[in-house]
Design a protein that fits this description.
340 residues, alpha/beta, six-stranded parallel β-sheet, 12 strands
Length: 340
């Protein structure tokens, strides 16, 4: 029997290069069955089954069968990300895909969008690159804190807080590994304070396993986040996270079980970190919990399958595993076991 083909048009609305969107679209194409075609375009193409808008605030009106992903923090005060620029387009959508439950709560409780249109599908991690990390630590080794994000001029990644936090930590017991564009700026400040620092402004994704293997904890002190992707990545490698209460961290992190939530008060947070430095046995339990739950973290296959499930509800056909066609055995083997 001939398999019906479905076309998903990912509408970008503006011709702006984005490494993040390129990677995400790559996962969609790689982990979708052969009968689902993903086409990226600036403007909508004719005849698509689903129009998946990634920058809906740049559109005046969405087409039928529209899907929007909320890639940003709906509480972000930046004018570019103002909530009111997005809400009219979300209202027009057949479905809105949130990355975390906080976004869903805002759209349901604050903005009154219909519950049936709101879905939560988190970003996943690439299990072909990342796995449970081997961390060979020796007594007396410094506690290694990692940061993996670009440094932004408007300080949304918590750069001002970071400088205040580290002033309250002992350089003799802590080392930093920084990854991301312009993180050399932070490296200079940290070294002036006496900290040992490794910094990589550009680190190929294929070697990120080495980054997570070298650090004891990932520090994420952003003021606003939609994701970020390094939440599932770190946890999948068994790396606890010290995080502000933003984005996907609220769904993935359990305080003092697989990580810590930061108060963003540098005095309070430094006291918690210094307590770990004084008694590493307390942290070893958190790390053990994190490693034990690493295999439950969603992969990008899971994330793509979740998106396909949303599309299926709109189209009225199960485009992930259609029961009305004979799926080739080798293709079914690839996609069986993928959760939604």
């Amino acid at each position: 029997m001939t398999i019906r083909k479905y076309t998903i048009n990912h509408v970008m609305s503006k011709n702006i290069d984005s490494g993040i969107f390129t990677a995400i679209l790559g996962y969609f194409k790689k982990y979708s069955p052969s009968w689902v075609e993903h086409i990226e375009s600036v403007n909508p193409i004719d005849g698509a089954d689903i129009y998946h808008y990634h920058r809906p605030h740049l559109e005046r009106k969405l087409l039928d069968n529209a899907v929007c992903t909320v890639h940003h923090d709906l509480d972000d005060p930046d004018v570019w990300h103002s909530r009111q620029r997005f809400i009219p387009r979300y209202v027009e959508s057949a479905a809105v895909i949130c990355l975390n439950s906080k976004q869903k709560s805002i759209l349901l409780d604050d903005e009154g969008l219909p519950a049936e249109s709101i879905n939560v599908v988190a970003h996943g991690y690439n299990n072909e690159v990342l796995a449970l990390a081997k961390k060979n630590r020796l007594p007396g080794d410094k506690f290694v804190i990692g940061i993996a994000s670009r440094r932004y001029g408007r300080r949304v990644k918590g750069e001002a807080y970071l400088l205040e936090l580290v002033k309250r930590l002992n350089p003799a017991g802590v080392k930093f590994v920084l990854v991301g564009e312009d993180r050399s700026i932070d490296a200079i400040s940290l070294r002036k304070l006496g900290f040992e620092v490794d910094v990589f402004e550009r680190l190929p994704y294929r070697v990120f396993q080495g980054f997570y293997s070298k650090i004891d904890a990932l520090l994420m002190c952003s003021s606003h986040e939609g994701g970020p992707a390094n939440v599932p990545e770190a946890l999948a490698t068994g790396t606890p996270i010290f995080s502000s209460r933003v984005g996907m961290s609220l769904d993935f992190i359990k305080h003092k079980e697989n990580g810590f939530f930061l108060s963003l008060d540098p005095d309070l947070d430094a006291a918690d970190i210094n307590e770990i430095l004084d008694d590493r046995s307390a942290f070893s339990g958190i790390e053990a919990n994190c490693r034990a739950s690493a295999f439950s973290i969603p992969t990008w296959q899971d994330s793509v399958a979740g998106n396909l499930s949303v599309y299926s509800k709109i189209i009225g056909a199960d485009i992930c595993f259609p029961s009305f066609v004979d799926v080739p055995e080798d293709e079914f083997a690839v996609f069986s076991g993928v959760g939604v």
